[in-house]
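User: Can you write out an input/output pair for a complex, sequences first and structure second?

Assistant: Here is one pair. Inputs:
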Amino acid sequence: MRLFQSMAISASALTAERLRMDLIASNIANMNTTRTASGGPYRRKVAVFAEKLEQAMSRGRELTGSGVTVAKIVEDQSPPRLVYDPSHPDANQDGYVAMPNINVINEMVDLITATRAYEANVTVLNAGKTMALKALEIGR
Amino acid sequence: MTGVLFDKTLTVLEKALDAGSLRQRVIAHNIANINTPGFKRSFVTFESQLKEALSNARDGEVTMLKGDPRHITGKTGLEQLEPRVVRDRTSSLRADGNNVDVDLEMTYLAMNTIKYNAVIQQLNDRLAKLRYVINEGRR
């Protein structure tokens, strides 16, 4: 039923935006992490969104939109910040510590964008739900 | 089919309901992809096709019977009326190439919901009239 498909599309967007918020939370939590399992400082994680397209069953070749998906989670490859602090246990021989390349302002803007997108998709979900409930009233 | 039970109006209302739910789905897809880089929004055309089909029906065009839906027809009749999804490839000012405008999409969503509710109300009115007639004027 097409209205359930519409709600599934909104649900995919809610999942994707929530994943983005989780990554932002992880980035901010690890702002000062200099040791990771792979060695070196923490690297900023970014989610890459992609449009989800599906084969429409009745129409054959045509692809219809069916929401959004997180294609992959990439690590930001920009170089880490070097901070001069010889007393730090992870300082290199010049006394510099490689700190994560995370800018709080960027993360906050991303967080606001993700929150607004989440709210917009909740509104769309409610509209679809209202329409489906109204359709149940035909002939009553 | 013609007659009091299945006339043109019910067909039009049914098609309008289909178009409304398709439009809701397309708007949901647009808003879901509001942060996807390079995404281009889609929209549904239905009202212009409906206008053309209604004016064809009024002019007394006979709807050609087709053996296969892919056969070419002269003009669109009411039975073949179908909403279409069109991809809007206009470029946008956003740096990531995404051309979804959240305010416009939310407005279209509200308009579509109201239209859908109006069509359902019309449908219920018609069915109530039919029921009244069937019950010979008794409730």
